[in-house]
Design goal:
136 residues, 6 helices, mainly alpha
Length: 136
């Protein structure tokens, strides 16, 4: 394990009090947040491509070759996993927001999938932020 990966997992274990699934809105997640994970972003693989095969804390349900959307069951499983990446005490410090964000914009040092969001002005990043802050 690289030092950067170790630091990421250590930070998650040490300081992140996660939100319960009950405090986050599933419908908002399913209609606005989850589509971000399957969205094509220029210069990047879709989140679902890597994160359905990952062994880290952000593991999405796997897609088959003809899959175009998550099933209800997969969405609920994804919601449970992703909810654990939300810091209920300080939403803006949530791993879900910081890990894919550019370091120059305040994100984490390392993300093997590259920087999905160059700034906090990205509309998809703002959607994630709204959800972790309780949007319904």
């Amino acid at each position: 394990m690289t030092l950067a990966r170790f630091a990421f997992f250590a930070a998650m274990a040490a300081g992140c009090t996660v939100a319960s699934a009950q405090s986050l809105d599933f419908d908002y997640y399913k209609t606005k947040v989850e589509p971000i994970f399957s969205k094509h972003r220029e210069g990047h693989a879709r989140c679902v491509v890597c994160h359905s095969q990952s062994s880290n804390s952000f593991r999405l349900a796997e897609w088959g070759p003809d899959t175009t959307a998550f099933t209800e069951e997969q969405s609920r499983a994804n919601f449970a996993v992703i909810s654990k990446l939300v810091n209920k005490n300080d939403a803006d410090k949530s791993v879900l927001l910081l890990h894919p964000l550019s370091k120059d914009a305040g994100g984490h040092e390392f993300h093997s999938g590259g920087r999905q969001f160059e700034s906090k002005d990205d509309p998809d990043w703002k959607t994630l932020q709204a959800w972790v802050k309780g949007a319904k």
